[in-house]
Write a structure and sequence with these properties.
single chain, alpha+beta
């Protein structure tokens, strides 16, 4: 539904209580209104899992049940919620958004793909060229989020290599990112889901076509403002840092490189581990892409994104 019985009707109804807009008031008139939205927490979930939210459960008998539109993704629903329009009218039909005037899309890739592409660019890019001969990655994914009570795996669950060229979607997506720069990088990834709720981690091996030292690799990681470095080797310590100091608990850095694990073999093979800041890195890219859509001048994007750089940590 896209009328007052759906998500599109929420903000017009709130505006009507303040005496704004043509919509007839649904609620008593008010001078101020606060709307609290919890992403993914719907009527049925509260009804089934009400023991975890006793206050919200107590409101159900008098609650007014509304429906989301289609598709019911966060991106589409937030567009409907904010504009009061159905998806076909506001145009935010998913996480891929058409760039006006051009037959192409802006796609924000996954958090682990951000990690992989950042490692490749930071360590192998120099003077406009990439020295990568081969990149191999093992994505060790958390089982579920600390806010979730389902989908937890009791033991490590190895993933399939469903893509004959890239293994899993992580390397495939990274390859497509560099393909936009007319590069055909040789990358392959594997994935395993671990029985933990803390953070994704990645083991990586980058084979270069030139010599490199451990010191140079570490310097490159430290010099990149989008990379956080750490001596910590436990995911819970990184996670707790983000919880205590991050933006709403999130680290916005593209990767957290674990410096004691960095090694170079035969002068051209780089090995190491890093942690993935969950959705923090993709959120930063989403903000940057939105600002670019508003004004495609990158200097303008850099200036307007400056206020959130405080959550791009250089060391954890």
């Amino acid at each position: 539904r896209y009328d007052e019985g759906g998500l599109a009707g929420v903000m017009p109804a709130v505006a009507a209580t303040l005496g704004v807009g043509p919509t007839a008031p649904t609620f008593p008139s008010a001078r101020r209104a606060v709307v609290v939205l919890v992403d993914g927490l719907g009527y049925e979930l509260i009804r089934r899992r009400g023991g975890h939210a006793p206050f919200l459960r107590s409101l159900l008998p008098a609650a007014h049940r509304i429906t989301a539109g289609f598709p019911s993704t966060t991106a589409t629903s937030m567009g409907t919620f904010g504009t009061g329009l159905p998806p076909g009218a506001h145009g935010l039909l998913g996480y891929e958004v058409l760039v006006p005037g051009e037959d192409r899309f802006v796609q924000i890739v996954s958090c682990n793909t951000h990690n992989i592409t950042t490692l490749i660019k930071t360590i192998t890019h120099e003077d406009g060229k990439y020295s990568l001969r081969k990149g191999t990655f093992v994505c060790m994914r958390r089982s579920n989020d600390v806010s979730q009570a389902d989908s937890f795996v009791p033991a490590p669950n190895v993933g399939k290599h469903e893509d004959p060229d890239f293994g899993t979607h992580h390397a495939r997506d990274a390859h497509h990112v560099f393909e936009t720069l007319s590069l055909d990088l040789n990358v392959f990834s594997s994935a395993v889901k671990l029985n933990t709720q803390y953070m994704h981690s990645i083991w990586f091996n980058l084979e270069l076509d030139r010599d490199i030292t451990v010191e140079e690799v570490k310097k490159r990681l430290r010099d990149n403002p989008l990379v956080a470095v750490t001596d910590k080797r436990y995911a819970n310590l990184i996670f707790s840092f983000g919880r205590d100091h991050g933006y709403y608990g999130r680290i916005l850095s593209q990767t957290v490189a674990v410096m004691p694990t960095i090694a170079v073999r035969h002068k051209r093979e780089v090995y190491g581990f890093c942690f993935t800041p969950q959705d923090g890195n993709s959120l930063l890219s989403s903000v940057a892409a939105t600002l670019w859509l508003i004004d495609p001048e990158w200097e303008s994007v850099r200036n307007r994104i400056q206020p959130i750089r405080r959550w791009l940590y250089r060391e954890i």
